[in-house]
Amino acid sequence: MHPGDMSACEIAGAVARGDISAFECTQAALSRIDRLNGSINAFLHIDAEGAIASARSIDSRRARGESLGPLAGVPIAIKDVLCTRNVPTTCASKMLKDFRPPYDAFVVERLRTSDAVIVGKTNMDEFAMGGSNENSAFGPVRNPWDLSRAPGGSSGGSAACVAAGMSPIALGSDTGGSIRQPAGLCGITGLKPTYGRVSRRGLIAFASSLDQVGPMARSAADCALVLETIAGHDPGDSTSLKADVPPYSRLLEESLAGVRIGRVAAHFTEGLNPEVARAVDEAFAVFRAAGATIHDIEMPHARWGVPTYYLVAPCEASSNLARYDGVHFGHRTDTAQILASHAADRTQKNNIDSDQADSTLVEMYRKSRAEGFGSEVKRRIMLGTYALSAGYYDAYYLKALKVRRLIRQDYLNAFEKVDLIGGPVSATAAFPLGEKTGDPLSMYLVDLYTVTANLAGVGGISFPCGLSASGLPLGFQLQSPALAEPLLLRAADRFQRITDWHQRRPHLEGTLQQP
Ligand code: GLN
């Protein structure tokens, strides 16, 4: 089999046995990236040199009889929100255009020690703010299933990369759905772990109480293999959980007999595309046939998820993004220009005062931020600053925290009755590029089914459950109580043993000539 069509589990096994070399697998990934990235724009940076060097080192260590890590030789793409030592890390923002971090994120360190081969950094919505990848400062990603459509976001580069077979696995980050939604729209599997399961050290912060790193792959079994590597306590992240890491990939066998899955009737009303509704209900039927029982449950506060998220996330973002001021971090405007214009002022007025020095500094901050950030990031900073300001804090931010608590309580109540909650991941299949860019609110509504898991800190996985009449992938989402990833992965894996939706591939050759 062509290494580009093998799963991460297959590659790791074949490299360990010596059936294939890490070099061959890496070459296969790099040549596919080379061929497809011009049309898809999934990668912001391709690290061919670094990838080949790690592959050669893995092969020579194997030749010397040394033991290899569990992901030996498996090509992986990393969302550009994660720091990679000496390798560009831009967050798809002009603000970080020239940033080369001096250290690796915790998850990147883990991948390197497990002998995965990092092939590059993937495109995304700027600072992970968006649901279509159109907010990247370096151009949108195109959905491999139809190049005129969005791949979803914000981890759209990672999703498109896996869907197009440019690497079998990728890392994404999920603050309000950014792993699960693009996975759903690109026909792959994406896991958002429980908050705190995976360290956030070296993940460039968007909304710190919601952000979580997770795997994206073609199958749940591959996600399990990656999660095993990246999960675990990190003293460098104060919110990282001190919980043992189960051997996820070895816990997939048990049947689903007796597993209780909740179905929320309210998910199936307003705005849910009938094709998605049908595919989701067929997925419930597959789970029933596999021995699970399906129960009606209610999540009375879920409808407030989007407004709550769009207060909490921008508030945290406005604080997190304050560091990009052209001094501490990020793009600095051309200060010579400011100084020259102030010098001209001074000669005119014939005096120097300290107010003028202050205004030079403020102008430098203002211009650096105005030039460095794109319009969606600015919108979030303004929303968050407004909601946190004196006089509005109680009415907006505190109120949102109270509703967040109620949403969390909905989950706790539901998980007394069921083990998992099933449903749609997105209301529609992939939408055309440009369709929602003029209307931020319609873009925010895309997050309807995903934000509540982040607000509650629980786990969620999405995986393909059908194809639309026009041949676009449709996704199913399962959510679990905190730290129930073994069950989440086992249920998704069982579904993939019974169905073959996850094996469907976009017909790339035909579509490559499109815009
Ligand atoms: N679409 C959501 C947003 O724009 C979620 C983003 C994310 O999970 N990073 O905020």
Rg (C-alpha, Å): 23 Å
Strand ordering within the main sheet: 1-3-2-4-6-5-10-11-9-7-8
Note the total helix count.
Answer: 17
> What is the H/E order?
HHEHEHEHEHEEHEHEHHHHHEHHEEHH
Report the top-level CATH class of the domain at 3-252: Alpha Beta
The small-molecule ligands in this entry are:
glutamine
Helix content: 40-55%
Overall mean pLDDT score?
95
Query: How far from one another are the termini?
Result: 31 Å
CATH superfamily of the domain at 3-252: Amidase signature (AS) domain
| General shape | globular
- Biggest beta-sheet profile: 11 strands, mixed
Strand-residue proportion: 5-15%
Structural class: alpha/beta
Stretches with pLDDT under 50, minimum 5 residues: none
* CATH fold-level label of the domain at 3-252: Amidase signature (AS) enzymes
CATH architecture tag of the domain at 3-252: Alpha-Beta Complex
Let me know the number of strands: 11
Can you describe what's shown?
There is one protein chain. The chain is α/β, with parallel strands linked by helices and 515 residues long. Among the domains are: 3-252, Amidase signature (AS) domain (Amidase signature (AS) enzymes), CATH 3.90.1300.10; 331-372, no CATH class. The protein contains 17 helices and 11 strands. The chain has helices at 8-17, 22-40, 48-63, 106-113, 156-163, 180-186, 220-230, 274-289, 305-320, 335-349, 354-372, 375-388, 394-417, 440-445, 451-456, 485-498, 508-511, and strands spanning 43-46, 75-79, 117-122, 169-173, 189-192, 213-217, 260-264, 293-297, 420-424, 459-467, 473-480. Strands 1-3-2-4-6-5-10-11-9-7-8 form an 11-stranded mixed β-sheet, sandwiched between helices. Strand 7 (260-264), helix 8 and strand 8 form a beta-alpha-beta unit. Helix 9 crosses helix 12 and helix 9 (305-320) crosses helix 13. The protein is globular. It starts with 7 loop residues before the first helix and ends with a helix. The mean pLDDT is 95. The protein binds glutamine. Residues 128-131, 154, 174-178, 206, 313, 447 line the site of glutamine. Glutamine binds at residues 128-131, 154, 174-178, 206, 313, 447.
